[in-house]
What we know:
By secondary structure, the protein is α+β, with helices and mostly antiparallel strands. It contains three helices and nine strands, in the order E-H-E-E-E-E-E-E-E-H-H-E. The radius of gyration is 16 Å and the shape is globular. The relative contact order is 0.22.
Amino acid sequence: MILPMYIFGQPVLRKTAEEIDYETYPNLKELIDNMFETLRRSEGVGLAAPQIGLPIRLFIIDLDVLAEDEPQYEGYLHTFINPEIIEESQETTSMSEGCLSIPGINESVKRPAKVLVNYIDENGEEQERWLEGFEARVFQHEYDHLEGKMFIDHLSPFRKQIIKSKLLAMAKGKFTAHYKCKPNRG
């Protein structure tokens, strides 16, 4: 089932998400399947539960969509439950980022190049591993959503000022997106 994307201005996007219990969270597998279907329809590479209105510590990443140009990502479909960033590299990289909850805005964001992460996977197994490159960037972007943050929070005051009017309009429901959305009607 395609779920509506919550758009900038929705309070759930600014809340710190709560941990869930893999064993007892209701219909978890169905939720994860719906999130992957929603992500594919919206043509993104990552989706956090707050973006579909659920303040829980869960996100998915689908890099398989990049496999034609980046063969190392073939079959890369991962679920991250109750993820944590344990360590970050001193080295950083900058790259343009966008967000399904902020349609039409892309900005350069500096992030650590590598992160050591811990999480529960889709099979209920605890994982700990280093991520680097694009995988690390997408993980950090989605992890921010669980912390009530968005990529725009990493921008300089100058860049924030430049996009301020677009964000205010978006929070009032004035935007376009090619996927199902649940905007503010403010």
